[in-house]
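Example record

One chain of 242 residues, shown exactly as stored in the release files.
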Amino acid sequence: MLKSVILSAALVLVSGLGAAAQDRVFQLTPYVWGTGVGGSVSPVAGGPRLKFKEGLSEVLDDLDSAFFLSGLYRQGRFVVIGDYSASKSSRAGTVPVLGLPARGRVEQSSLTLAAGYRAVDRERVTVDYLVGLRHWDIRARASTPVPGLAGRLSVDFTDPILAARTTVQLADRWSATGYVDLGGFGAGSDISAQLLATVNWQARDRLFLSAGYRHLQVDYDSGGRGIDVEFSGPILGMSLQF
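Predicted structure tokens for this chain:
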């Protein structure tokens, strides 16, 4: 499924290369996302729904690894964006009331690719409208001696998304960017959504520093097994233009 997602995005990119060669921009942004996590997991059909909520400090304690990277390509009014995020976390604890040992592990990755058109291209304001795909790969495991509470969840699915992105020039070296997308619609998940807002400072000719807030959520269910989770928190990025 992931290969088909990448192939589809590549075909969209190739189809847009006929745009005018002028005004071409490629931007790469590694970033840090200080995310809190909340939601629920149903690893076993008909079993209990395990709820969780962790603030940033708890997430950092449980985090095993994380990687975040986004990119943008624009040629004329043709725009392509991409984002990849992945994290692994685990926690040991006890089953409430019973006091028996329990351990959980969650691995998630999401790849978002979208292409579209710059509908508004003014000196101080730009607006892009895009369509694309977001591929999810989620694996969760709960280990406990309590019957009915232990289980595994391993799902991957692809959501179609509709997106909009706008940038407003605030001052000579300052700008603000807002991005929103909505997807799923029952094709992959029931619903997935993302909201991102940043303030950007141009440190050098092709170097930008950004700070803001990002919210990402997904609600997926298949045969009584699924996950409903939200990731939210501050974000810091460094963009390089080529």
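Notes: The longest helix spans residues 2-15.
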